[in-house]
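note to self — DONT lose this again. spent like an hour looking for the file last time. sequence + predicted structure for the chain T wanted, 237 res
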Amino acid sequence: MGARFEELDWRDTPLGLLTLRRRRDPVLGVDVYEVKLGDEFLMSSLFTAAEVELARLGLEANPSTVLDVAVGGLGLGYTARAVMDDPRVCSLTVVEGLPEVIEWHHRQLLPDTARLTSDPRVRLIHGDFFSLVAGGAGLDAEDPRRLFHAILVDIDHTPRHVLHPSHAAFYEPEGLSRLSTLLHPDGVFALWSDDPPDEEFLGAMAQVFTTTNSHVVTFDNPFTGGTSTNTVYVARR
């Protein structure tokens, strides 16, 4: 079982001190993996239901029999793992802004998602997702004109609570329009958010995409003894 608590990695990054830690939860009897940025919790392996639903809902909205998928934000890898559970997926490109996070996966510090780095269909790319979209360079440096059947994004807390001010423009109609050019016809954009559905953001999506929806994902919260919610937005070109 190992120690009840250990810091697996900690690095200074342009966004602040990034920490990966593992702790044994004595009540649940499981190892919990957590990521902190400074004093702020970014993610926990206890709360992955909405990350999995991001993949499921996003891919479910595209009826194609073969899917090339891109994910913005690797994190603990649960969205990427859920993508690879769909038998239609022939390739997955994951763009992650922090090389340390990619290194965690290559070092297999996260046992639940260890198989990602051994799957030949998966590419983990270090890059600024928002800059790539805004600059028109595409998400695949080897093929800048490459299109995807689905692009799933889980980077910021919400469209309003962003990790860096430079991300904010992505959530406006112009930013979403640039993203849409990276999708096949009928391609799907899906986004995770920590807040309830935001009508203003839904309006911005509606200016760009043919169909837009928000899904509230409810999951058990062992800390409160009740339930919590996240939102998954899904839009189709």
